[in-house]
């Protein structure tokens, strides 16, 4: 691997390091979404209506909703998801909206605890 690859944000996250304050703020904002057994109906469809989408996360971390904020938070969410710190869900029906909903994983909770302990 090249030096640039080893120092990429995704690889730093894989090593357990949160690389920026925004990712830490996103994990904090997703803390209420931790649920060991998400509610599902008789067909196994998981209810995601209570999980935040990108706009709600932008609001929770105190940014103004703008194209720049959406792009930045979306990149951070993609990096967090690539490292299994968050999981995203897409709605199956239109009334759930067009965007993805996000939930903190157990691995993400551990990473948040480590980051908080090192402060």
In short:
The chain has 119 residues and is mainly α. The protein has 6 helices and 2 strands.
Helix content: 40-55%
Question: Spans of 5+ residues with little confidence (pLDDT < 50)?
Answer: 1-6
Number of helices: 6
Number of strands: 2
CATH topology: Arc Repressor Mutant, subunit A
CATH class: Mainly Alpha
List keywords for this structure.
mainly alpha; globular; disordered N terminus; 6 helices; 45% helix; 2 strands; Arc Repressor Mutant, subunit A; 119 residues; two-stranded antiparallel sheet; 8% strand
Word description of this protein:
The structure is a single chain. By secondary structure, this protein is mainly alpha-helical. It has a single domain, classed as Arc Repressor Mutant, subunit A (Orthogonal Bundle), CATH 1.10.10.10. It has helices at residues 3-6, 9-14, 21-29, 54-60, 67-82, 106-117; strands spanning 86-90, 100-104. The protein has a two-stranded antiparallel ribbon. Helix 4 (54-60) crosses helix 5 (67-82). The radius of gyration is 15 Å and the shape is globular. The termini are far apart.
Secondary-structure map:
Blueprint: H1 3-6, H2 9-14, H3 21-29, H4 54-60, H5 67-82, E1 86-90, E2 100-104, H6 106-117
Antiparallel strand pairs: 1-2
Helix pairs in contact: 4-5
């Amino acid at each position: 691997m090249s030096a640039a690859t080893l120092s990429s944000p995704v690889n730093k996250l894989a090593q357990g390091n949160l690389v920026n304050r925004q990712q830490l703020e996103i994990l904090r904002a997703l803390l209420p979404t931790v649920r060991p057994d998400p509610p599902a109906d008789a067909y196994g469809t998981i209810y995601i209506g209570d999980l935040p989408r990108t706009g709600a996360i932008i609001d929770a971390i105190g940014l103004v909703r703008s194209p720049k904020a959406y792009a930045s938070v979306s990149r951070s969410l993609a990096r967090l998801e690539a490292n299994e710190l968050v999981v995203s869900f897409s709605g199956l029906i239109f009334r759930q909206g067009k965007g993805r909903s996000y939930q903190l994983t157990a691995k993400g909770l551990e990473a948040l605890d480590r980051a908080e302990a090192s402060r």
